[in-house]
Design goal:
With 344 residues, the protein is an alpha+beta fold. The chain folds into 2 domains: 2-90; 112-341, BirA Bifunctional Protein, domain 2. 40% of the residues lie in helices and 19% in strands. The protein contains 11 helices and 9 strands. Strand 6 (245-252) and strand 7 (255-264) form a beta hairpin. It starts with a helix and ends in a 6-residue tail after the last helix. The mean pLDDT is 86. Belongs to the class-II aminoacyl-tRNA synthetase family. Phe-tRNA synthetase alpha subunit type 1 subfamily. Its EC number is 6.1.1.20.
């Protein structure tokens, strides 16, 4: 039995030295030290030994077990260090390689247009005001000379939430709220940019959600000539100093008289082309003198105060200024489209 134990020790240590990974090492450990291993099998025969031989063989068996266990532990450390080294080599980072460039974003084209228009009117003394997108029927219609059942309401297909709550169809409610907040005694200039909503079918020139910027100037002795001067400055700043404007009679319930403003076509310098449909002019916004009823409902005496108002769509301005032919491009979030205007 002594010779058997010695042979098992030599064989086990040799096998341990030959293994190349942790899985093989575990298999060797089970083969020699497990419940069905070689060493355990030999020790089961100790019952046949004499009383004098048992302690001797038992001591030798313990030494063999310790030798094999020690060899396995040492080999395990070597394999762990080897695995760690291989992992470090595989995950090594070459710090001399150039870094990956970070793509810089930029403002959305509509954001840039709105900010450009805001800066322009702030420079002319206007303040920027905002209001709720979920609006009351009163401020969206009634306070703007559009009582219930007025036929002009059909011009603006509306998303109603209740009979008295709706998604605002224009930013004019902000104007009505501002006039009421001043109590009919304070002159002011303001613009109100924001999103508006209408029940419209989306196509190349229409959207159920779009942006508006409306302006309002109320003071004593405000004239149509003041409106034309402000709009002329706006047109030249946005589209070039050689742009001309013209005002055509129109109708809006909250202004009287009302006008549509056209600018001379930039593509043909007013000579007529496909862009302007041969007229030489392109419609850009609506405007007019504030209706006396609107002033009265806000607390302003129309015999003392007068004012002008205008409204424009930044999407339309962007389409004309940059040659965009489909309003839906502004809302598709296509980076290929948007990145063209990062430096616009």
């Amino acid at each position: 039995m002594k010779e058997q134990l010695e042979a098992i020790k030599l064989e086990a240590v040799e096998k341990v030295n030959q293994v190349n990974d942790s899985k093989e090492l575990q298999e060797v450990k089970v083969a020699y030290l497990g419940k069905k291993g070689s060493l355990t099998g030999v020790l089961r025969g100790m019952g046949k030994l004499s009383k004098e031989e048992r302690p001797v063989i038992g001591e030798i068996a313990n030494q063999v077990r310790e030798t094999i266990t020690s060899a396995i532990e040492e080999k395990s450390k070597v394999l762990e260090e080897k695995a760690l080294e291989e992992k470090l080599q595989a995950e090594a980072i070459d710090v001399t390689l150039p870094g990956r460039p970070v793509k810089a974003g930029g403002p959305h084209l509509l954001t840039s247009i709105v900010e450009e228009i805001e800066d322009l009117f702030i420079g002319m003394g206007f303040e920027v005001r905002e209001g709720p997108e979920v609006e009351t029927d009163y401020f969206n219609f009634e306070a703007l000379n559009l009582p219930k059942d007025h036929p002009a309401r059909d011009m603006q297909d509306t998303f109603y939430i209740t009979n008295e709550l709706l998604m605002r169809t224009h930013t004019s409610p902000v104007q009505a709220r501002t006039m009421q907040s001043y109590g009919g005694s304070k002159p002011f200039k303001m613009i109100c940019p924001g999103k508006v909503y209408r029940r419209d079918t989306d196509d190349a020139t229409h959207s159920h959600q779009f942006t508006q910027i409306e302006g309002l100037y109320v003071d004593k002795d405000v004239k149509m000539s003041d409106l034309k001067g402000v709009l002329d400055v706006f047109a030249k700043k946005m589209f070039g100093q050689d742009r001309e404007i013209r005002l055509r009679p129109s109708f809006f319930p909250f202004t009287e008289p009302s006008v549509e403003m056209d600018i001379s076509c930039k593509s043909c310098d007013g000579q007529g082309c496909s862009v302007c449909k041969g007229t030489g002019w392109i419609e850009i916004l609506g405007a007019g003198m504030v209706h006396p009823n609107v002033l009265s409902m806000a607390g302003y005496d129309p015999n003392v105060y007068s004012g002008f108002a205008f409204g424009m769509g930044p999407e339309r301005i962007a389409m004309l200024k940059y040659g965009v032919n489909d309003i839906r491009q502004f809302y598709l979030n296509d980076v290929r489209f948007l990145k063209q205007f990062h430096n616009a």
